[in-house]
């Protein structure tokens, strides 16, 4: 069953990892997909081609989500290209891990800008379009680290916890206009990036998870399908953990 037939969706950071998984699953559910990337032009154009073969509209945009003006210009362009925006998924994110003692001011600021300020930029930019439509679903990619904290990730944890507070506030501000805003908190999701890690270490992480495996981009994408679709029309202001029971 196609749950997103005809919906127009914009995903930040769709060129690889979780964002790519979301783009693929959404296209299979009949959504038209606009997605962004920061620098991976080759993979982004390849994905645009792959998605377009599924009889939906797909388009890749190079845009820095951390830049306020670029986010505004992006939304203007996507609104022109797709007519409306039903769903915004703020997925773009980076890590610059270090102990507090060693973390530089630059690495703290960069992670906050790309992970948290981007969510403000994109949500503010899309707000007018969704207010006019009197409907919309905004999904923000937090992390179990934002819920629980993690040694060596003060910058990342602060950005991901900030996303949860931001999302709950947007849900309260825009609920009366039928605009919903929720966060997803993924646990350990296995992507190409984690494939490069030491197998014994990764197996140790898997063993510590109640469901005994790492998650896949599809696991996160399926949670996004729920929050983007009309199955969740009475769900807003929530944080959905997709972590195999890690935080239970
Ligand atoms: P990833 O594989 O590193 O992919 C990151 C994506 O974000 C890429 O498409 C990248 O584009 C894009 N991006 C980076 N900086 C950007 C910017 N300034 N503007 C626009 N796009 C930008 O990451 P991932 O593992 O899929 O993670 C996706 C999201 O889930 C992140 O927010 C992450 O914090 C969160 N998360 C991940 C995990 C996990 O285990 N993987 C767990 C919890 C939460 P380029 O390809 O052009 O660089």
From TrEMBL:
It comes from Nonlabens dokdonensis (strain DSM 17205 / KCTC 12402 / DSW-6). CDD domains: BKR_SDR_c. This is 3-oxoacyl-[acyl-carrier-protein] reductase. Residues 44-71 form a coiled coil. The gene is fabG. Homotetramer. The keyword Coiled coil applies. Its EC number is 1.1.1.100. Residues 7-191 form the Ketoreductase domain. NADP(+) binds at residues 13-16, 91, 156-160, 189. It catalyses: a (3R)-hydroxyacyl-[ACP] + NADP(+) = a 3-oxoacyl-[ACP] + NADPH + H(+). Pathway: Lipid metabolism; fatty acid biosynthesis. It is an enzyme of class 1 (oxidoreductase).
